Structures are given as C-alpha cells and as structure tokens.
Amino acid sequence: MRWRRYLLGVAWIASALTGCALIHHNGTPYNEIAPEQINLANDIHLARDGWPAARWWTRYHDAQLDALVDQALAGAPTIVIARTRVAQAKSDVELITAGSSLQMVALASLDRTHVSANGFLGPFARNEPEAGLTGPWYTEGIVGLGASLDIDIWGKQRAEIAASLGVHNARLAETSAVELEMSADVAQLYYGIQTTYQLIDLLNQSHQIAVFAVQAHEARGTRGLEALTQLEEARSRQLAIERQIVAAQAQIKELRESLRALIGAGPDGLPAIEPVALPASQAALPAMLSYELLARRPDLQAMRWYVQASFDKIDAAKAAFYPSFDIKAFFGVNALHLADLFTHASQQINLIPGLSLPIFDGGRLNANLNGVREGSNLLIEQYNQAVLNAVRDVAQTGSRLQDLDEESALQKQRIGMAAFTRDSVEAYYQRGLTSQLAALEARQPVIAEQVALLTLNGQMLSQEIALTKALGGGYRAEPPVELKPR
Question: Per the UniProt record, which residue ranges are transmembrane (predicted)?
C-alpha cells in the first residue's frame, strides 16, 4: 500500500507537470551590430593618435577651468539627479534580493469569539466544563514565529536579481555619461567666454583706430580739405564696431548665465573668470574604433546593461511557466483559553511544503514573455542605432577638425599677407611718405583677419571638446558587458 501511494503521487506530479502552461511566444532575439560597422572611414585621421585620458580637461593647464568642472561635478542638479537614480536602483536590487531570502516574522494575535450553536463548531457553543466546553465565548491566543522560503529551482528569482543588478549598473554608467556631458559643456562654455574676451580685445584695437579716423576726418572736413561724407563713413564704421563690442559683451553675460545654471551656482556662486589665452589644439583620434568604442562610451555601456537586464527578464518570464515550490513553517503556542496559552500542551508546529503549477492562465504568461522579448528586441535595435550614432559623431567631429585645421593654416597665410601690407604702409609713414591715418587704417585688415582666425580657433577648441565627448572622455568599462541573447 505504501509503494502504491508513492507511485500514485509520482504519477500525479508527472501528469501535473505535463499539463502546465506551454511556451508559445518565445520569439527570436535580434542581432547585435556587426564589428565592421564600428569604425571610421580611411580618410578621417588627425595628427595625433590616442584616446582621451581621465580628467581630460586638465590637459589645458587652466586652474579656472579645473575649478569650474570640479564645482559642477560636485553638486550640479543634473549630477544629483543621476546619483539619486543610482541610489534608487540600488534600493530595488536590495528589495528584490531580500524577497528571495528566508522570511521570518513574529506572530501574536488575540481573538474573542462567540461560537454559533448552529455552525460547524456548534458543540463548542455549549457550556459543559466537564467535557472541556466552556462556550459560547472563547478567547483564543496565538504567539509564535512564522517563516517562509521560496525555493528557486528554475532560477526565476536569480534572473530577477540579475535584471535589477543590470539596471543598477546601467544607472552607474548613465551617471558617468552625465558627468562627461557636464564637464564637456562646462569646458565649451568656458572657452566660449575666453574666445569672446579675445574678440573684444581685437574689437577695442579696431575701435581705437576708428576713433582716430573720425577725429582725423573731422579735422580735415572742418578745414575744408575733404568732403564731410568721409567723416560720416568713418563714424558709421565706428558705430558698427561699437555695436559688435556691445553684442560681444552681451554674449559673455549669456554664456556666464548658462554656465551658472549648468553648475547649479547661486547669484554669487560663480567665480570671476579672468581672460587667458586659448590653448593650442590637442585633439587626438584613435586609428581604430571597433569594440573599444563600446567600452569607452558610458552611454553605450548603459544601453548594453539595459539590454543585458532585458535578457535576464526573459529568463524570469520563462521560469514563470514552471512549478514553484515554497515552504512555510510556524512554531509557537495556540490555545482556546488564555490561561492555557503558555503551557506545554499548547505548543504548535506547522511545516507546510507548497507547490504552485500554472496550467490554464488565459495566455497571461505567454503574453508576458512575448512583451518582454519584444521589449528586449527594441532595446537591441536602440543600442545598435546608438552605436551607429556614436561612430557618426566621432567621424563628423574628426572630419570637421581636419577641415578647421586646414582652414586655420590658410587663414594664417592671409594674416601674413595683410601684415606685409600693414608693415609696408607703416614704413612709408616712418619716412614721411604717407599719413598716420593711412598707417593706422592699414592695421584694420590685419585685425579683421585675426578675428577670422580667432573664430576658427574657437571652433577648433569646441570641436576638440566635442570629439573628447564622442570618444567617451576618460571612461572605460572593465570588463565590457558581453551581450548573450537568450
């Protein structure tokens, strides 16, 4: 009889397993981007080769810039938001991990009950002390410890924990991406201010010449030596330069306010920015990108972690089709009369193994699996597009730097030609062969060419910072996340 019961139990479990819900909508995982698509065209290269270093902005040796970046990374609102998201993801990991561990609680309850004489416990409604019946009122007490444990045979809980860890790691990489974007934006705004400072200096030189020209033409016009139209033209040129100076000063104010808002400084929280010379270009571009770019870009690493987490969610969705096992236990005392609660005879022990098997669920599990799979495929395609966008950013920025370098070389030649003309006119003035006004006005073309070169240098510096950002700054994932679709 004992063996018969055992075989019947095994047969029942086997039939239950064969009758569980079946997977119908597993789907097919999409493929990761091919390695050959993660590279640059052969005609894009710079004079220097390499990847950005950690704290890349210190290579400019500018104490003002270092202080501004450090201030931004210390407590800018965007940084605080990113770090709060990391803390939230960490809490989610701890919550899911705790749910898979042994749960134990202390139990205590008091139940004052009136037993119905016509109910299932009708005999207990009688008051017959000799028979142990003291109804109809009873005061039941329960005190003890309860415990429960889910047995993760199919790895559902492990997959859920892995998915939450993937999200946490993605948030960490996103924080690095925010820090990179923050430092790059601070550097670009800072050098935008420095470029405008130098522009104002050149405009002031041009303005001094324009003022002298107005005075000279005014003196000649007063003596009747020339028409007043030349005086008005000189005044018009002076006003145009003054308008440029006012516009440049307004631009500095706008850049300062943008910088102040970026780093989260108060009205007096942004230090004074003193003019300094623009640094020489230090742009470098690696000869090969390939999968190295994936490890260097924090935003790509964040997306890879999200994709990896989606694979773990697929595993959890598959495991939901299989039986789940748990064990519940209770140890304590239970009595109908409080006076008997803490006696030896009132001790109670419960050990309850449990089995839950999905059989008919109306397609809920398959719909969940299909949704998780499609969500994973969507993340894979978003990741592939992000990789292509990253390669495009590097290629476009590197190509633009090449063009700006060539333009800068040509512009320096133009300055040399304009300077030759200026020097010739000044030599004539020194020999008394031309007027001082002509000698001064010969400087104007040189200043105009210097303004054009300054604009190119500012653009080169901005593109250099953008290239540093496109290459991931000083970030590097160790080891890179490996995508293994399931």
Answer: none
Output the domain CATH number for residue 114.
Answer: 2.20.200.10
Phi first, then psi, for residue 139 (nearest 5°) are -115, 100
Per DSSP, helices labelled H in 264-297 are 292-296
- Long-range contacts from 255-259, C-beta under 8 angstroms, 24+ separation: 255/189, 255/192, 255/193, 255/196, 256/193, 258/189, 259/68, 259/186, 259/189, 259/190, 259/193
Asked if residue 246 and residue 145 are part of one domain, the reply reads no
What would the two tokens of residue 180 be?
């990179």
Return the DSSP state at 301: H
Cα gap 319→372, rounded to integer Å: 13
- The pTM of the full predicted model, rounded to 2 decimals, is 0.83
In what side-by-side order are the strands of the sheet with 347-356? 103-114, 137-151, 324-335, 347-356
For residue 221, which phi and psi values (nearest 5 degrees)?
-65, -35
φ/ψ of residue 147, rounded to 5: -140, 150
CA dihedral 369, 374, 377, 381 (to 10 degrees): -160
**278 and 173, same domain (yes or no):** yes
Residue 204 and residue 238 in contact, taking contact as beta carbons nearer than 8 Å = no
Look up the domain containing 182 and give its range. Answer: 20-100+152-321+365-470
* Cβ-proximal residues to 197 (8 Å cutoff; 6+ apart), any chain: 252, 275
pLDDT tens-digit series, residues 312-358: 999 999 999 898 899 999 999 998 888 888 898 889 999 999 988 88
Averaged pLDDT score across all residues of the chain? 88
Do 333 and 442 fall into the same domain?
Answer: no
Q: How far apart are CA 148 and CA 56, in angstroms?
A: 53
**CB environment 185-222: b (16+ within 10 A), e (fewer):** bbbbbbbbbbbbbbbbebbebbbebbebbbebbeebbe
Q: Are 78 and 316 in contact (CB under 8 A)?
A: no
Same domain, 379 and 448: yes
Question: How many domains in the chain?
Answer: 2
